[in-house]
């Protein structure tokens, strides 16, 4: 079974994919295809599909054509290693002020959310470290060897 996220673009899907794959490591453009017959969403060639990867995850893009006026509400959540990385992506994708949740809507109508990975998330998974909480600061301490 293969499950793939769909992103719906208002326009210029190819430009959007070029930007996304340039900004996000582990990304690549795949294929783009036009529907060559007239559709309710637009004339022949105006409706497009694409396959691409963002952060090693497969996506399909759909540019619905000039007659599709629905709001499809596509979104992507990116887990960032640092706040600087999240800020860089916010600016590159949104060019404006983020909303109250820190997300931005890009020029193609895709909503982007950014989560900064807490250092504590890695500490708990390490066999060599155990978290010690001191207020909001998380420090790693080596575990004592078992006797």
3D structure, described in words:
- The chain has 147 residues and is α/β, with parallel strands linked by helices.
- The chain has 2 domains: 5-116, Roll (2,3-Dihydroxybiphenyl 1,2-Dioxygenase, domain 1); 118-147, no CATH class.
- The protein has 3 helices and 9 strands.
- It has a 4-stranded mixed β-sheet, covered by helices on one side. It has a 3-stranded mixed β-sheet with strand order 5-7-6, with helices on one face.
- The chain starts with a strand and ends in a 5-residue tail after the last strand.
- The model is unreliable at 124-147 (pLDDT under 50).
Q: What does this entry show, briefly?
A:
With 147 residues, the protein is of the alpha/beta class.
């Amino acid at each position: 079974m293969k499950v793939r996220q769909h992103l719906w673009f208002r326009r210029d899907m190819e430009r959007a994919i070029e930007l996304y794959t340039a900004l996000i490591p582990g990304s690549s453009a795949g294929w783009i295809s036009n529907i060559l017959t007239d559709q309710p969403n637009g004339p022949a060639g105006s409706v497009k599909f694409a396959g691409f990867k963002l952060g090693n995850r497969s996506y399909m893009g759909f540019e619905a054509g000039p007659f599709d006026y629905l709001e499809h509400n596509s979104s992507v959540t990116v887990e960032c290693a640092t706040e600087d990385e999240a800020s860089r992506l916010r600016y590159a994708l949104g060019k404006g002020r983020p909303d109250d949740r820190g997300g931005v809507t890009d020029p193609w109508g895709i909503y982007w959310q950014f989560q900064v990975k807490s250092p504590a998330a890695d500490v708990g998974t390490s066999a060599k470290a155990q978290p010690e909480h001191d207020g909001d600061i998380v420090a790693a301490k080596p575990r004592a060897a078992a006797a």
